[in-house]
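Reviewer 2 asked us to include a model.

Predict the structure of this chain.
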Amino acid sequence: MPLIKTYEKDEATGELLEIYEEIMKLRGEVGNNAKLFSSSPQLLKQQLEFIKYYATHETLSMPLLASIRVCVSNQEKCNFCIDFNTALLVNNAKWTIEEVDNLKDKIYSEKLKKEENTLLKFVIDSVKNPHAVSENTISELKLQNWSDKDILDALNHGARMYATDILFNSFKIKDYKG
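Predicted model (structure tokens):
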């Protein structure tokens, strides 16, 4: 049971109900990842906009973004997020469980392009130790044709996942079952 009040769909009213209905249209259900933010509809609305932005990102692929989330969450031992994003990779990108396990161990995957692996490593290293990022680090990414926007968007995605993992772990949100 979460340590803070989360609202089920049948308990939602007003703005929260409207947001839940939008989530239902997009995903067919309101998962615990949405319910986490249900005590603060404004935060839930921001989270939904964040998800929509990355779902239609023009250069950062779904497998790369899910890989970032898996690797960040693996470091933070957020089982819900690891399981949720593993399911996305397995069900939507046709990865195997072994390929996801390898990704978690090596922060690298043959399923990703070379440039995506470089960006993935940058994000994970930066989340762990942002002070170690140097001009050379960014130059290497730019040599692989990543724009400043791509680099910022990827690191923002990883940093936001880190923050979300903290919320899930602190408030004891139940593991993903999917």
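The mean pLDDT is 94. The chain has two domains: 9-55, 62-171. We have added this to the supplementary material.
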